[in-house]
Amino acid sequence: MMPPCRWGFSIDRMPAPSVAAPPPEAALPLLAIAGFASMVAMRLCDAMLPALGQSFGVAASEASAAVSAFAVAYGVMQLLAGPLGDRFGKPRVVASAAALCALAAFATALAPDLRTLTLGRAAMGAAAAGIIPMTIAWIGDQAPWERRQVVLARLLSYTVVGMMTGAWAGGAVAEHLGWRWAFAGVGLLLLGAAGGIVARGLASVAPPPVVAGQWQRLRALLADGRARRLFAVTAAEGALVFGVMAFVPSLLHQRFGLPLSQAGAVLALFGAGGFAYAHSVAWLLRRVRPAQLAAAGGALLCTAFVTLALAPHWAWSLLACAIGGLGFYGLHGFLQTRATQLSTEARGSAVALFACVLFIGQSAGVAAMAALVARGGATPAMAAAGLALAALAASQWRQR
Question: Is 204 contained in some domain?
């Protein structure tokens, strides 16, 4: 048996391709760049909500429909993206999804009203559904279990930088050039990522043979109590974390008068915390169990959200966002790794369902937070979300 490469893959476990495939250490960055672009697209609207509200003559809480639309479409389309990845090959689906998301972004840049923009965001979310989850599933196919969380953290290095870029660029570009240019820019980024995958031949690699009775296996997965519990925890995590994150820039803008570009840069520190996790997880997992790392992540999220809720000065939000990012990925990395092991034969579908419930939870969380913000209740809602996340993470203590 050949030794694992530096990405943690066992080369001899890869299915025999019909054409020469790039080696895994070359393939992961190609797919991860598409993941970076999709995260820019996902977080692009967070810091531009006040600008969208001014452009269309509505409140920022009403403009948050653009955030929810992306999340709902992203979650629902996982039900299609997963089986497509298992059937046609995960890298091929990633390239196609990136190209379609680029076209949707260009259309969104031309939106004449909030309703059209919201529909455009929904189309972007539907297309982006096939990018990160299929890359995660591909890692599950290639990386042995004992190395998988570390390899997933390498993917995280790309996606958290995408989150940071999206959170900052959404506010900065909207403030200095106009929000339409932000959508045009992310469209070009996605198109370039799709072209890179195709140019290197990764999308031409034949998938493994189709598993007979794939839909039956998917139904069996949903009937598994272990899977249902994981999906429930993941949905709650998405609602609590992303419900708060979507309104951090607006809160800083309204409470402390920060310009949108600065408020978006503060939120980008959430991604910096995730980047710190990605580069320390191998060291951490040599010293603590994965479930202990998840529990510590919940405690950090609780500290971060309570600090954001009660901070007397905006400077406190710098530390809060950084430790919140570290905590979120400590918890989410554990849940994500468990998702890759739910089904070894229909892994694309299993990971897609995991993403589905995460982003449906996110949509519900954003909608709930929007209602609370409109009624002046952001402070207690943020604090309560932090306490709930600490309890949620502690419930995973006995998991393996």
Answer: yes
124-181 pLDDT, tens per residue? 999 999 999 899 888 888 777 777 878 888 887 788 788 778 877 887 888 888 889 9
Largest interatomic CA distance in the chain: 64
Report how far residue 348's alpha carbon sits from residue 93's, in angstroms, rounded to the nearest whole number: 11
Number of domains in the chain: 1
| 296 assigned to some structural domain | yes
DSSP string, 296-313: HHHHHHHHHHHHHHH-SS
Domain range for 260: 19-394
**What CATH number should be reported for the domain holding residue 231?**
1.20.1250.20
Q: Does the reported pTM lie above 0.85?
A: no
In angstroms, rounded to a whole number, what is the distance separating the alpha carbons of residues 400 and 387?
23
Q: Is position 113 within any domain?
A: yes
3-state secondary structure 26-61: HHHHHHHHHHHHHHHHHHCCCCCHHHHHHHHCCCHH
Residue 8 gets the label, from left (phi > 0), alpha (psi -120 to 50) or beta, of left
